[in-house]
Structure formats: structure tokens, C-alpha cells
Specification:
coiled coil, mainly alpha, rod-shaped, 1 helix
Length: 74
């Protein structure tokens, strides 16, 4: 192989290597951000479940109160 063609190949390999490094960095950043979203979503999911169960209990208590006061049709 001629000396000039070796240089061209090395330049292309260097460009490819730089692009792969940039992709790795982007991938690392995406994984970090996804991890943060998963943590936040997990916390929101727990809070929603807690609120939902509290609302269910309040609804049951309200139903009992309405029945005692004869405010609802049976």
C-alpha cells in the first residue's frame, strides 16, 4: 500500500473514533437522565398510590355518614 493511502485510512479511522467517542458520551448522558426520570416517576407513582388509598378511605367514610344521616337513597 502506498504511504498516501495509509494516511487517508488513518484519518478516516481517527474521525470514526472521534464520532464513536461522541456517541458514547451522548449515551452516558441519556442513561443518566433516564435514571433520574425513573427515580422521579417511582416517587410520583408511590405518592399517587398513597393519595388514591386515602381518597378511597375518605369516600368510604363519607358513604357511611350519608347512610347514617339518611342522605342517600337506598
Amino acid at each position: 500500500m502506498a504511504e498516501g493511502s495509509d494516511n487517508i485510512i488513518l484519518r478516516y479511522l481517527k474521525r470514526i473514533d472521534e464520532k464513536v467517542d461522541a456517541l458514547r458520551e451522548d449515551n452516558r448522558e441519556i442513561k443518566q437522565r433516564l435514571g433520574l426520570l425513573e427515580q422521579r416517576y417511582g416517587l410520583l407513582e408511590q405518592q399517587y398510590a398513597s393519595l388514591s388509598s386515602r381518597i378511597d378511605r375518605i369516600e368510604a367514610r363519607l358513604d357511611r355518614i350519608e347512610k347514617r344521616l339518611d342522605l342517600v337513597e337506598v
